[in-house]
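[Discussion] Sanity-checking designs against the backbone

I'm trying to build intuition for which residues belong where. Below is a structure token string of 201 positions. I'd appreciate it if someone posts a full sequence so I can compare it with mine line by line.
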């Protein structure tokens, strides 16, 4: 087949972003809940999010630092050392999308979206009560990328996981019932209930 090859160093930032995120799909969405030192709650979605180890149970999310500005989520995890991750399902897409808007640091996204903020059992950061699953995490380390830093990767130690009973079978998840949302590109999404198939072992 004929191919076009791209030198990533020669592409502009937007083209790099569109090409990379258009290929690495679907990307799960971590709806990151944090609380500022003054008590202001923050909620923002990140599609640079994944599990990277089961022992120790470790997740990551990555946030850009546009014009060297630290976003609220990152500022809060640096200050408090903790965060939550709510899993976005199809019923929460509109609320999730609205929290992708950059609000002022003193704005509570839970209040703006009329979502219920539930404080974690072992962390003070809130998670979305309406979500079918949520993780409570403590920061393990933060790795800055670029010089000067243009992005930061937050590694989280998963302390507790809360899952709705109707999507559980022991520790196994019914993905059709979870109906978790992944991001394709732009405002295009897919769910874990779409076109699932199995392969023979």
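Best answer:
Here's mine. Compare freely.
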């Amino acid at each position: 087949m004929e191919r076009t090859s791209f030198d990533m160093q020669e592409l502009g930032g937007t083209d790099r972003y569109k090409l990379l995120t258009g290929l690495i799909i679907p990307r799960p969405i971590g709806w990151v809940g944090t609380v500022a030192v003054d008590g202001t709650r923050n909620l923002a979605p990140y599609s640079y999010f994944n599990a990277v180890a089961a022992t120790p149970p470790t997740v990551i999310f990555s946030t850009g630092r546009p014009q060297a500005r630290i976003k609220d989520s990152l500022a809060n995890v640096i200050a408090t050392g903790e965060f939550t991750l709510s899993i976005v399902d199809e019923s929460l897409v509109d609320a999730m999308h609205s929290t992708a808007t950059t609000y002022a640091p003193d704005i509570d996204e839970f209040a703006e979206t009329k979502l219920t903020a539930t404080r974690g059992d072992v962390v003070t950061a809130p998670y979305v009560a309406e979500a079918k699953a949520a993780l409570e995490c403590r920061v393990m380390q933060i790795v800055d990328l670029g010089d000067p830093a243009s992005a930061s990767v937050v590694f989280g130690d998963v302390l507790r996981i809360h899952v709705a009973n109707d999507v559980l079978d022991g520790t196994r998840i019914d993905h059709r019932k979870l109906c978790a949302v992944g991001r394709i590109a732009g405002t295009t999404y897919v769910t874990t209930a779409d076109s699932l198939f199995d392969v023979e072992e």
